[in-house]
Design a protein that fits this description.
It is a single chain. The protein has 14 helices and 24 strands. By secondary structure, the chain is an alpha/beta fold. The strands form six sheets. It has a seven-stranded mixed beta sheet, sandwiched between helices. A seven-stranded mixed beta sheet has the order 15-16-17-14-13-19-20, with helices on both faces. The protein has a three-stranded mixed beta sheet with strand order 1-5-4. It is globular and about 85 Å long.
Length: 509
């Protein structure tokens, strides 16, 4: 297999995983290997950071924050624009690396890099729009307004399933806001992070930006715990499981810091009798099997009206039968592997539990065998008819398992949709305006994302991304999500010769 993209991105058999800008060093911890789930090959090794390594990166970030925040925001935006251009130049190579190291299809890998380019474009415009409000004062000759200032060091903890895009959602916005960033990527996908740091660091160096503005730490969960507890990091943005997020949120909250949490999803699509089944089946299929079911927005539950359940089962069986599963770098394949053997074991346990709880098998799951599946990480996407209250259905399983649930009324369908601990993404397929509006109303979906006639998976960078309940409540990317990276300050100016007090209070000397 041609892996020239590794060399093009400056990656070697062994890679340094501690970076302060473009200044690289080895972590003093144990050596880990990154194996591709596509073929089991060791792509490269890296040493994990220790606590001492961590403190060096944080100290550099603190030191260089002052210079960065004093650069005008549009100039910071211009540098982020150049970073976006650098990723444009490296899109093909980086997309291939993301696909090969994580296991998502090449099209999805390239799409993830495109998200980075898009958020850079968004951030450039944002750098000229970090605006506050002006308010009328109740006191004469007074003016009130608000402004926004950078927070300081932003800690970014990202997950393996989107090894580069989620970092960019946070870092590019934080940078134009005047913050400096420390990135702890998943140790399952370290090389993708190292490649991104190299690309961004070259741009920063060319613009003579202090090195501490962009830091990278390849470390395990202990480094994440250090970040969560560190008073020097006013904001920790963490993406991962709800279990991980609860730990991070508790640690950050204990020190009264700010956390942006993007956690688990248990996303459902409702198919109404008024749906266009052609687009509904395509949306459900991609939502369930895209990235091999390892998206936080993956479709986990398909809530189908009882009158069309048999038709949907038949159409799904036909569609699943057309899926091509194999090496993600082969563009003819629809589905790649799970990330590793742990994920495969979780998939198998979920299938077993679903059956034990009474699930009806529509399409059974299994680990695929053969030379093309030699890594042991390729699985058959599965479909089961279940009840929503099954314990396994209430959980998020990061695997291509789709649960079918029938309903009789729209009110029942919405109740089923909402009756899980998570609240990230949701969708309804219907051509009936009243059904669509009910789904989007205050009595409808309780998720952060609610779609009509598109699936649960995938989001545009222009809208704020995030969810409610055990999804954590955070918002990233577009709209006014930038405000989480800044602190709000209300200002009052008295330009008169008297000092009237608020609320009409008199205090005469």
């Amino acid at each position: 297999m041609n892996l020239d993209f590794l060399k093009a991105l400056g990656l070697a058999d062994h890679n340094q995983g501690i970076a302060i800008g473009g200044n690289w060093s080895d972590g003093a911890g144990k050596t880990i290997s990154s194996h591709s789930p596509a073929d089991g090959r060791c792509i490269g090794t890296v040493n994990l950071a220790t606590e001492a390594d961590y403190h060096k990166v944080i100290e550099a970030a603190q030191k260089d924050f002052s210079a960065w925040r004093n650069m005008p925001a549009p100039k910071r935006g211009e540098i982020v624009r150049q970073i976006g251009e650098a990723f444009r130049k490296h899109k093909d190579d980086l997309g291939a690396l993301v696909s090969y190291e994580m296991g998502k299809s090449l099209q999805e890998g390239l799409g993830e890099v495109q998200e980075m380019i898009d958020i850079a474009d968004f951030a450039v415009g944002l750098s000229r729009q970090l605006h506050g409000l002006t308010m009328h004062s109740e006191r004469p000759s007074h003016r009130m307004y608000e402004q926004w200032h950078p927070l300081g060091v932003v800690g970014i903890i990202s997950a393996f399933n989107f090894p580069v895009a989620v970092w960019s959602w946070n870092a590019f916005l934080a940078w134009v806001c005047g913050d400096v960033c420390i990135w702890k990527p998943s140790e399952k996908t370290p090389l993708s992070a190292i490649a991104c740091q190299k690309i961004a660091a070259e741009v920063f160096e060319a613009n003579q930006v202090p090195a501490g503005v962009s830091g990278l730490i390849i470390g395990d969960a202990e480094i994440g715990k250090l970040m969560a507890a560190d008073q020097r990091i006013p904001l920790v943005s963490a993406t991962g499981s709800s279990r991980m997020g609860k730990s991070v949120g508790a640690a950050v909250g204990a020190r009264l810091g700010k956390s942006l949490l993007e956690l688990g999803g248990n996303n459902a699509m409702i198919i109404s009798p008024n749906a266009d089944l052609n687009i509904a089946i395509v949306g459900a299929l991609f939502g369930a099997v895209g990235t091999c079911g390892q998206r936080c927005t993956s479709t986990r539950r398909l809530i189908v009206h009882e009158s069309m359940l048999e038709e949907v089962k038949a159409k799904l069986s036909s569609a699943y039968g057309q899926l091509k599963i194999g090496n993600p770098l082969d563009e003819s394949n629809h589905v790649g592997p799970l990330i590793d053997q742990d994920a495969v074991n979780t998939y198998l346990k979920a299938i077993q539990q679903a059956k034990e709880e009474g699930a009806e098998v529509i399409i059974d799951g299994k680990v695929l065998e053969g030379d093309q599946y030699s890594s042991g990480c390729y699985v058959q996407p599965a479909v089961f008819l279940v009840q929503n209250d099954y314990k396994i259905v209430q959980q998020e399983t990061f695997a291509p398992i789709l649960y079918l649930i029938s309903y009789s009324t729209l009110e029942e369908a919405i109740h089923i949709q909402n009756d899980v601990p998570q609240g990230l993404s949701s969708a309804i397929m219907t051509l009936n305006m009243r059904e669509a509006e009910q789904f989007l109303s205050v009595n409808g979906s309780d998720c952060g994302i609610a779609n009509v006639n598109i699936g649960t998976s995938g989001a545009e960078i222009g809208g704020a991304f995030g969810g409610e309940k055990e999804t954590g409540g955070g918002r990233e990317s577009g709209s006014d999500a930038w405000k989480v990276y800044m602190r709000r300050q209300t200002n009052t100016i008295n330009y008169g010769s008297d000092l009237p007090l608020a609320q009409g209070i008199k205090f005469d000397l």
